[in-house]
Amino acid sequence: MNFDFDSEQNDLREAVRGLLARAYSDSEQRRTVVKTDPGFDEKTWARLAEMGLLGLPFAEEDGGMGAGPIEVAIVAEEIGRVLAPEPFIEAVVLAGGLVAAVGTAEQRGELIGAISEGTTIAVFAHAEPGTRWTSTAEGVTATQAGDGWTLTGVKEPVPSGARADVLVVSAAIEGGTGLFLVQGTPPG
Amino acid sequence: MRLQLSPELEAFREEMRTFFTTQVPQEIRDTVAAHRHPTKEQYVEAQQVLNAAGLAVPHWPVEWGGRDWTPLQRHIWREEMQLASVPEPLAFNASMIGPVIAAFGNQEQKERFLPKTANLDIWWCQGFSEPDAGSDLASLRTTAVRDGDDWVVNGQKTWTTLGQHADWIFCLVRTDPTAEKKQRGISMLVFPMDTPGVTLRPIELLDGGFEVNEVFFEDVRVPAENLIGEENRGWDYAKFLLGNERVGIARVGATKRLIAQAKEHAQAIISGGRPLAEDPRMASRIAELENELVALELTALRVVANSADGKPHPASSVLKLRGSELQQAATELVVDIAGPLSLASFAEDGSDVPDWARVATPSYLNYRKVSIYGGSNEVQRTIIAGSILGL
């Protein structure tokens, strides 16, 4: 078994480290960014997108880079190394990952490319007050209404939720938990 | 080994418990119980309620408000205070400068400062640490130069806790830069924080709070009468004071309260369709922590029952070490119980996430300090190796 990184993976690490070192060279800079809405730096986010990092785990036919969990982990490690506040895990790994894994071809086509390009920020709204690391939803329920569904309940906390263009919301449906795409801040 | 309190001490415990839970305003105790920072007014009110009943400075000389209690009584007093979520008498006043002035100050200084210090009419802050002098305190560089009837102070202190509330500062300054040992050239001066030339700058902490400050001195003129004790003996007073800082630092009562709260939270959080408290791994983690806390409490009782002349027992280093580790383990436990809810740290009013989960992460981060202050845990390990294990 070989646990060494290959040269491409090492190059990836160097590139991400270099980009983030410029963005967060000292903790004051980081504090200023975190204190100002949306709590991360849109320019840094755009640079991560340019480098292809926001599409890293997604299939190439959906508009991603077709990389694997090792590459994703390398990026996450470098983000953690400087405590960069960009919502890589929230938007790419969780929300994007769910759309890629269970979304319809249409949903994937609409969202994966946009997430990878950094033009759409999607986040996963799953935690509910009173629960902890559950795999199901209870506090938010979904009922069918005409052509669509109506979601009722509270999701909190939703990291980066205030900035999100699209929410992937988990909600209780008959016989289990469903995932729903909700655009921005619709009425209700 | 007898682990039961005598009937007299049981009665004493009951008396303390009744006082703390009925005489200190509920709103102040609720603030402490919710791990929110009390306001200056709340600190002052609580200490004045205690002082009026003779419960603010029981460890001081009787002449200045002390109670001549046994170490065990003092232990019970402190434990009950923590269990009742009463803010403890301000350490800078009650445990630090008060005992120093009582032991080394002149009569005029005692009369001038001690009653107001016990009653928190003067709020003191501690001017010890500097940017290049923390655990190696004797390297401090703030100077005081004699000029006529005054000392002129120049330099900088840092990590000055609650300095923003302080009326006065007690300050270690270098008065003899030529002394052969760096410890020998240090003196202790006290002066008001609004003396011209004193500037205070708050430091924002990891938990988002403002608890500590930097304090700058530029040609601050301090009357010679504000020197405590003898010139160039400040290091002895500092050691005396830091010995007191370690007393009661195990904070068993406070950790007990934290774990009791954690158990309630674990009942309220539903995980996998049942209360988290019923999860075997969580239950055993809580039980293990409680066992370790009982062991610490027994050690603390052994130490207080066997310490004489108010001298710090060498085992107090064990109490500091384990006490801080368990405080940190308890705050970590609360964060883990909150799980993803603890991410809502800075949520505003109107959040559905319960208050305790919102303060869980800030409290956890704030408690990083307990393994650093009062002599860092590395320093305590060195003391244990040397004076207990004889290594």
Automatic annotation (TrEMBL), chain A:
Give the enzyme class.
Answer: oxidoreductase
Its domain of life?
Answer: Bacteria
A GO molecular function assigned to this protein is: oxidoreductase activity
The residue ranges of the Acyl-CoA dehydrogenase/oxidase N-terminal domain are 7-118
Sorted UniProt keywords: FAD, Flavoprotein, Oxidoreductase
Under Pfam families, the record lists: Acyl-CoA_dh_N
The yes or no answer to whether the keyword Plastid is present is: no
Which EC number(s) are documented for this chain? 1.-.-.-
The name on file for this protein is: Acyl-CoA dehydrogenase family protein
Task: Give the originating organism.
Answer: Blastococcus brunescens
Question: Species lineage, top-down?
Answer: Bacteria, Bacillati, Actinomycetota, Actinomycetes, Geodermatophilales
Automatic annotation (TrEMBL), chain B:
Matching entries from Pfam families are given as:
Acyl-CoA_dh_1, Acyl-CoA_dh_M, Acyl-CoA_dh_N
The record's keywords, sorted A to Z, are: FAD, Flavoprotein, Oxidoreductase
Organism domain of life: Bacteria
Q: For the Acyl-CoA oxidase/dehydrogenase middle domain, which residue ranges apply? A: 125-220
Gene3D superfamilies listed in its UniProt record: Acyl-CoA dehydrogenase/oxidase, N-terminal domain, Butyryl-CoA Dehydrogenase, subunit A, domain 2, Butyryl-CoA Dehydrogenase, subunit A, domain 3
Family annotation (InterPro entries): Acyl-CoA_Oxase/DH_mid-dom, Acyl-CoA_Oxase/DH_mid-dom_sf, AcylCo_DH-like_C, AcylCo_DH/oxidase_C, AcylCoA_DH/ox_N, AcylCoA_DH/ox_N_sf, AcylCoA_DH/oxidase_NM_dom_sf, Mycobact_Acyl-CoA_DH
Chain ranges of the Acyl-CoA dehydrogenase/oxidase C-terminal domain: 232-388
The residue ranges of the Acyl-CoA dehydrogenase/oxidase N-terminal domain are: 6-119
Official protein name in the record: Acyl-CoA dehydrogenase family protein
> Which species does the entry assign this protein to?
Blastococcus brunescens
What is the organism lineage in this UniProt record?
Answer: Bacteria, Bacillati, Actinomycetota, Actinomycetes, Geodermatophilales
